[in-house]
Amino acid sequence: MDPRQRARVLVVTFVGLLALHGWVLTRMIARQDNLIIVLLLVAIALFTWRLGHYAAIAVAPPAVESSRPGNELQRIRFLVPVLAGVFALHVWLMTQMIAAGENLFTAALAVGAGVIAVRVGAYALRYRHLRRAATAA
Predict the structure, then answer these.
(1) pLDDT digits over 89-109, tens only?
(2) Taking each helix axis from N to C terminus, what angle separates 103-136 and 69-99, rounded to the nearest 10 degrees?
(3) How far apart are CA 44 and CA 14, in angstroms?
(4) Chain segment 38-67, per-residue pLDDT in tens
(5) Cα–Cα distance, 88 to 116 (Å, whole number)
(6) What are the structural domain ranges in the chain?
(7) How far does the chain reach from its first CA to its final CA, in angstroms?
(8) What percent of the residues of the chain are helix, what percent strand, and what percent coil, each to the nearest 5?
């Protein structure tokens, strides 16, 4: 997939994530759950930041390709612990939503946790492939 097409797909993904988290935010404001409100605001700020990044790439992709194996390995080493933390947060939030009887939110969080787990698995496979290629060269 070329960088512009990938960026467009990610723009749509982040717009969807913003809409979903915005909707959950309105529900949590109504419940007056301050901790989850703060966590949602942080997530919305990060999604907005990434949305701007990918929107810029969709319009004008960078002239220099930064997908050298060393850069990609470094990116994976950074992202996997971040995603593991986000996964743990989603699981904790699922326990909170189960306790509150919020089945719809629990299901949404389960889908999110599943997507994160699949993404970590894909990164693990990609990391192993890049390491093998680096040692073979």
Answers:
(1) 999 999 999 998 989 999 999
(2) 160
(3) 10
(4) 999 999 999 999 999 999 999 987 776 656
(5) 10
(6) 1-64, 66-137
(7) 26
(8) 90, 0, 10
